[in-house]
What does this fold into?
Amino acid sequence: MKTRKALAKRFKITKSGKALRRVGGQNHYRAKKSGNAIRHKRKTAGLPKFLVKKLKKAGLK
It folds into this structure.
């Protein structure tokens, strides 16, 4: 089965099976956000297990 490339660009599956995604709201309208909020958005966020199952079904490894 082919991998869905749109999802492969946005998500990463770790060795332990967790899924990582980029936190939204980093591209513009950043001047009104606090430095603390901007700093926290630099980190990657996890996904719930039910969405991880869907990603694996879509061909992500």
